[in-house]
UniProtKB/TrEMBL annotation:
Annotated keywords: DNA-binding, Transcription, Transcription regulation
Name of the molecule in the record: Ribose operon repressor
Cited InterPro entries: HTH_LacI, Lambda_DNA-bd_dom_sf, Peripla_BP/Lac1_sug-bd_dom, Peripla_BP_I
Domain HTH lacI-type: 3-57
GO molecular function terms listed in the Swiss-Prot or TrEMBL record: DNA-binding transcription factor activity; transcription cis-regulatory region binding
The keyword DNA-binding belongs to this UniProt entry's keyword annotation: yes
Pfam family, any one: LacI
Keyword DNA-binding among record annotations: yes
Transmembrane segments: none
Amino acid sequence: MKVNQKYIADLLKVSRVTVTKALQDHPDIAISTRKKVKDLAQELGYIPNIVGRSLSTKKTGTIGVIVPKINHSFFSTLIEEMYLEAKNHGYKIILMVSFENEETELDNVKSLISMNVDGILMDPVSHSEKGEAFDLVEKHKKPLVYIDRKPRSIKTQNCVLFDDYNLSYSLTKQIIERGYEKLMYINGPKEINISYNRLRGFKDALKDFNIKTPENWILHAGFDKNSSKEKFLEFLKNNSNLPQAVMCVNDSTAIGVYNACKKIGVKIPEDIAVTGFGHVKVSSLLNPPLTTVKLDLKKACEVAVEKLINLIDSNNTANKNTIIGGKIIFRASVKENI
């Protein structure tokens, strides 16, 4: 016999409506009846039918989450925090991974829409040129909230972003105040908001201190350690003049600089200072430990899930971006003064 609400109702000699309401803790049902129904449901191993529930409530109680990767402490922390916050609101997470590939991201969206998730939280790919994933979500009128990253070409305001500009400006300012003037910056893909805003913060701090950096001292790589290592080694091959400090768009990029320095015998921080952004777990374990910016991931996930659920419940597309802060953590990769 299939264990469903009708089977439970027949065993207890009550109506199916009574079982449904009892399982939902409806106040119409006596507490003693609710307990009997729940106890029997647990004994029988009853599992609610999500499809059946969605037909009656028009909701599945699920949220789709798309991230660029999972083998990375920043994104694994995001996933965990989103899962916990969704659970607090009675939602379950369906996780998809784009692997920094725009076509895979589009397939992720198609899968989530086919599963009829109630809404989608997305940390998009770094190279987002076509915007097809966003367009498809819009066509199906699914609530969508971007977290952490957002393609610059997309004008939606339903985002939870970090205070990238001000944190980058403040880090650059403090580096300059320690005596560093010859500064290099290694940036990520230009189509994404965090690259644009962090570079803008760096440049504006230099401008305010009347410091000029040659254009070829602003390198463009990916968000990964391999591309930044290659870009920095290429620079060193063609330039004998070393910067005093290399500031990186994220910690993975900074790790690439560490690897390049190790390969050519440049010492950190004796010969060159290095900073990151994002506070991945390995940043404190590097030799020397990496100066970085710690972002409030827990707060960002709380706000993003709440924002998405509000969109699900209200069907309201008008919203505002929410900016989440962070703090600068100085470690041994930067001297106190030079």
